[in-house]
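hey so u asked for the seq, here:
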Amino acid sequence: MSLIITDECINCDVCEPECPNEAITQGEEIYEIDPNKCTECVGHYDTPQCVEVCPVDCIPKDPANQESEDVLWVKYEKLTGNPGRS
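ran it, structure tokens below
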């Protein structure tokens, strides 16, 4: 799954710079995550960095964008041009 930012977002700006895929941008009211770019930090970190830094815990998995870890690795490879798991 990709992640989603909920309405509890306080626009604190800490998540955006943590995203290695530049999937987080400021939306009209709150930050938003582009599901086409979100890999849940697969390929970069062991845990999603936006979730780690969010002070209000408003970044859950998006049930509308369910993806397996294998799919997230493929997305990582496409976004970065780096080979995935060996």
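The chain has a mean pLDDT of 95. The domain at 16-80 is CATH 3.30.70.20 (Alpha-Beta Plaits).
lmk if thats what u needed
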